[in-house]
């Protein structure tokens, strides 16, 4: 346990004091004692008031990631294992755990690491130097804790290949932590079967955070089709087909999914075949931003349109540019919804907050000459908990469902 003490500047650390987990390098006044990057250190306010312990890394602009508010708490193996146990107990209480996120970084008080569970496979993404030292312990703890519930982990794969690792002075890596295994893993979510590519898929292989939102769309489509009504659906940025397949399972007559990635579309086609839905779902490789204007010109209209784009900004200084992008894509999406149809739209950017995203949609509706009736507003699934704190870094996904009517 390090005895180095970090002293904050007067008036700094406001976000951390409000409940956040990060202390930035420009908030530090001085450091007393010896330490190495990745060590845990004691944090004091400018006046000597103890604030807690966290991992330090002066190679990163996020200089300290807080672990505990108790300066006397030793960061032991037992401490880390208990954090892992609490995270798993929470998931068992709030969500179907067959496939879920079992560790969500700061929101589980284990800053800088994510672990996703796909049936009997774990996928780890380690993004911070301090927590990286505990990566194996966290994995071993999960294997042990899951076994207590009769879940035998078949393998563990690491996807620590995000660019952000370079900001921590770390190499980008991927590969097996356990003995090698088949990295094409079949899961079932909301009754839909998928094959998840944990080695080469985006992020850790699948976007688990939209689980509840996909189910909401499946249920909406099911209710709309109960009377025998035929339903036409357009799913934009479909990735491996998840929203499209949920709508088809809900009873949609015709579903088109669009994505720019040939690899993703190939996987979506295979997922459709896996579910016996190939006759009602087709996937198209195209740039959504180029395709939508063409569909509008052709007079195409859909009963349900879904927009699930990648984050248009990953930094605070590009919000204005991102707002323009979200506005344009929502204008085009709304124009493709027939009168009385339904529109689902979302943003997965932490920096595009609720207020700005809502403002953009309202502006888009005005330009498209559409009136919106909100069905519901949703966020990420409960296995990606939103930790109420000063920076709200864990709150990133905004998801709206509207009924769309023409101006009358």
Q: Could you estimate the helical fraction of the residues in percent?
A: 25-40%
Give, in spatial order, the strands making up the sheet with the most strands. 16-15-14-17-18-20-19
Largest sheet: 7 strands, mixed
- Indicate the CATH topology of the largest domain: Rossmann fold
Beta-strand share of residues: 25-35%
- Note the total helix count: 10
Structural class: alpha/beta
Tell me, briefly, the overall form.
globular
**Which architecture of the largest domain does the CATH hierarchy give at level 2?**
3-Layer(aba) Sandwich
Which spans of ≥5 residues are poorly predicted at pLDDT below 50?
A: none
Give the oligomeric state of the chains in this entry, treating copies of one chain as homo and distinct chains as hetero: single chain
How many separate structural domains? 3
């Amino acid at each position: 346990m390090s005895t180095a003490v970090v002293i904050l500047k007067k008036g700094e650390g406001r976000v951390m004091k409000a409940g956040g987990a990060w202390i930035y390098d420009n908030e530090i006044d001085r450091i007393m004692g010896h330490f190495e990057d990745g060590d845990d250190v004691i944090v004091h306010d400018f006046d000597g008031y103890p604030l807690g312990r966290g991992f330090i890394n002066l190679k990163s602009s996020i200089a300290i990631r807080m672990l505990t508010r108790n300066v006397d708490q030793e960061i032991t193996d037992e401490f880390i294992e208990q954090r892992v146990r609490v995270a798993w107990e929470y998931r068992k209480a709030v969500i179907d755990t067959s496939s879920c996120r079992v560790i969500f970084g700061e929101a589980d008080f284990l800053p800088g690491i994510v672990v996703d569970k796909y049936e009997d496979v774990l996928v780890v993404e380690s993004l911070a130097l301090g927590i990286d030292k505990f990566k194996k312990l966290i994995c071993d703890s999960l294997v042990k804790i899951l076994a207590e519930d009769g879940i035998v982990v078949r393998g563990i794969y690491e996807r620590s290949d995000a660019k952000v690792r370079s900001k921590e002075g770390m190499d980008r890596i991927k590969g097996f932590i356990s003995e090698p295994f088949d990295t094409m893993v079949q899961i079932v979510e909301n009754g839909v079967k998928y094959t998840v590519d944990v080695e080469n898929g985006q992020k850790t292989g699948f976007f688990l955070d939209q689980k509840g939102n996909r189910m909401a769309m499946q249920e909406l489509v099911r209710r709309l089709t109960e009377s025998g009504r035929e339903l036409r659906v357009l799913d934009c940025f479909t990735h491996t087909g998840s929203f499209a397949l949920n709508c088809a399972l809900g009873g949609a007559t015709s579903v088109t999914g669009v994505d720019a990635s040939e690899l993703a579309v190939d996987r979506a086609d295979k997922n459709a075949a896996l579910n016996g839905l190939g006759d009602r779902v087709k996937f198209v490789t195209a740039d959504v931003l180029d395709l939508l204007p063409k569909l509008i010109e052709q007079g195409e209209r859909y009963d349900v349109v879904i927009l699930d784009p990648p984050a248009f900004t990953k930094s605070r200084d590009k919000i204005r540019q991102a707002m323009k992008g979200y506005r344009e894509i929502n204008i085009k999406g709304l124009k493709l919804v027939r009168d009385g149809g339904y529109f689902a739209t979302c943003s997965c950017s932490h920096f595009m907050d609720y207020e700005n995203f809502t403002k953009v949609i309202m502006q888009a509706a005005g330009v498209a000459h559409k009136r919106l009736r909100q069905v519901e507003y949703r966020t990420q699934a409960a296995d990606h908990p939103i930790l109420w704190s000063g920076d709200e870094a864990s709150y990133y996904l905004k998801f709206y469902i509207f009924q769309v009517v023409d101006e009358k």
